[in-house]
TrEMBL record:
Example GO biological process: DNA biosynthetic process
GO cellular component: a single term: cytosol
EC number: 2.7.1.21
Pfam families: TK
Catalytic activity of the protein: thymidine + ATP = dTMP + ADP + H(+)
Residues given in the record as ATP binding sites: S9, T10, M11, N12, A13, G14, K15, S16, D87, E88, A89, Q90
PANTHER family according to UniProt: THYMIDINE KINASE (PTHR11441), THYMIDINE KINASE, CYTOSOLIC (PTHR11441:SF0)
Broad class of enzyme this protein falls into: transferase
Subunit-structure text: Homotetramer.
Identification of the protein by name: Thymidine kinase
Length: 196
């Protein structure tokens, strides 16, 4: 029975690396996989999943108005899909999360999604909220704070390294813009007036 999986974490935990490794494992055994990535994440180029350690692979870019169930159904008509992988899953819409669930339930395609749980303000992304609500299996991918504790939060910085407390929820960036922290240190950085 196919399932919908959500692997979540903060920035720089290795989600894309895990996705690429899992897809490679299927392909090495002659099984077909489909890789999807949010079209707005063009850091490695549109339609490319890339990890910080240098692995990359072509992927199908999706936009908020794309019907992912219809896309997977059309691709499955061309040949069996052993697994579908979605990177930057936080950028999915709630409708798209349900479309992926239907692909698992009705088409029998396991769907493995990878993304951030919360934004730099500590708020859930809509795609992550829907995945946390309906995914069959949840997996936390861990990374560490500068203090050595598990990092669960992320801050956004400007070009001078100053912490930003306001701004649009979605702003694509990497190590140059985001720093992962444990909850305590995130709170101290975001709310220095109450850190005592």
């Amino acid at each position: 029975m196919a399932k919908l999986y959500f692997s979540y974490s903060t920035m720089n935990a290795g989600k894309s690396t895990l996705l690429l490794q899992a897809s490679y494992n299927y392909r090495e055994r002659g099984m077909r996989t489909v890789l999807l990535i949010a079209s707005l994440d063009d850091r490695a180029g549109v339609g490319k999943i890339a990890s910080r350690i240098g692995l990359d692979c072509e992927a199908l870019p999706f936009r908020p108005d794309d019907d992912l169930y219809a896309q997977l159904k059309a691709l499955q008509a061309e040949g069996d899909i052993a697994c579908a992988f979605v990177d930057e899953a936080q950028f999915l819409t709630e409708d798209q999360v349900w479309q992926l669930a239907r692909a698992a339930d009705r088409l029998g395609i396991p769907v493995m999604t990878y993304g951030l749980r919360t934004d730099f303000r500590g708020q859930l992304f809509p795609g992550s909220q829907a995945l946390l609500a309906i995914a069959d299996e949840l997996r936390e991918v861990r990374t560490i704070c500068e203090c050595g504790r598990k990092a669960t939060m992320v801050v956004r910085t400007d070009q001078n390294g100053m912490v930003l407390r306001e701004g649009a929820q979605i702003e694509v960036g990497g190590n140059d813009r985001y720093v992962s922290y444990c909850r305590r240190h995130w709170d101290e950085v975001m709310n220095p007036e109450v850190a005592n």
